[in-house]
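Team,

Forwarding the record for the chain on the shared tracking sheet. I've put the sequence and predicted structure together so nobody has to dig through attachments.
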Amino acid sequence: MARSRTISVLKFPHIVCAFSMTKKLLFAILLFLLTSIPFQLLAGIAVVGAKHVKASTDSKFRLECMLIQPEAGFSVRLEAASPTALLKKYHIRATDAEVVEGATYSNGAWVLQEPELNCGYIVEKGQGLSEYYWLADYSSSPLPQGELYAAYSPDSPCDRIILSTKGGFSSWTYYSPDGTAGQLTREFQIRYFNALFSEEDFAFKIQEKEEQLVPQENTLQMLAPLADTSFRLIGDKYSAIFEPNFKSIESNMIPSQRIEVYTRYKVLGTSENKTSEGSREDGLPSALSAPVSVKMEAVANEPAAQRYIWRILPAGNESEEGTPLLIFTGKECEFTFDKAGSFVLFVEVGARNGSCLLQSDKKTITIGASRLEVPNAFSPFSSPGINDTFRVAHNSIVSFQGAIFNEWGNKLYEWKDPNEGWDGTFRGKPVDTGVYYYIIHAKGADGKEYNLNGHINILGYGDVGIAPNPVTP
């Protein structure tokens, strides 16, 4: 089979050669058309001899908007099935349209030589069907060339920036067939520096950003950056087509006044330490047992942020007139909670301009009611690792004094930390199994006083008839 195909090819070399040449010629023609003819066909419209781009579509009215940079000799082709499909022009309302004079019909399209721009064209197809086109002149609103000026908004001096130029930032107005005015979408490209928060490093880092801004009242308005910066206009969404050699313009330097603050908390003596901002989970449990020391840290975008004031207030009494448990000036502080109740923690950060102020999200914690329970037995020697220490179970105990006695009233052990306990020894040696006595005086964070006394049993290997009462630490 392979030899048969080889012979047939060799028999007709002129046919193979001609076919190969035809493919190369077609490819060359297609490549020439794609690279040398300056027009673009879009839904029945083509622009020849001028830079252009489709700007928007109004599907309600079948309206195509084309942005054109007019040049000498350029033309526009509007598809029409026959010369009986009238070509009209309007400026505001389609009902006021007039027949276009001077247009020629050729190869299924109306051809307009150097047509009027910033107006609408209608191709009437009959039976109530029409196609609408709006041709906008790019050169009527080129990119600004003068100075770029940055300033804080008078209405939001802590949050908003306004960028302006002598000629203003504008777009192109078009009119739908019913006379409704619209703006062709135009986004200006602005570069600047901003401070971005890194949760991993618990710090702000300076980075360059680029933002697309739509004009508002001939200005550009944006959220104020968190870093000192100038602003650079580098173009708009169309500049690569119409103004590829545009030279960027830079504004004056603006010192940051907007503040962003993040907080984190840590219960001292634990490894919990997570960031809190907004509604995210943080490293501070909502319920704690007193006494407990909490470390509070805040970080904001400096040098804009220059003053930190931590406040701790009883929950429900968070106004400025409330009596605070703590007012502390500084980025971080520690506080020991020794009273029961719910408390609100937050930090206020002031800007260097003296007028902008931000309060962090509030964190509410609850110091639970006190509890003190005493076991009645333990087995320090007979079951290693299980119930080896006589230890109370407690919550929110702020003062504690305990002692252990034998049956003759001799003190064998005393302790002041409820987290500690007796290991069943005296002077380093194990005591005998049997009954001993405790006396405990304590006070809870809620003010409750405990005066407890009773007996405890040290269980040995044979003490199976005594069941110790369990307590939950």
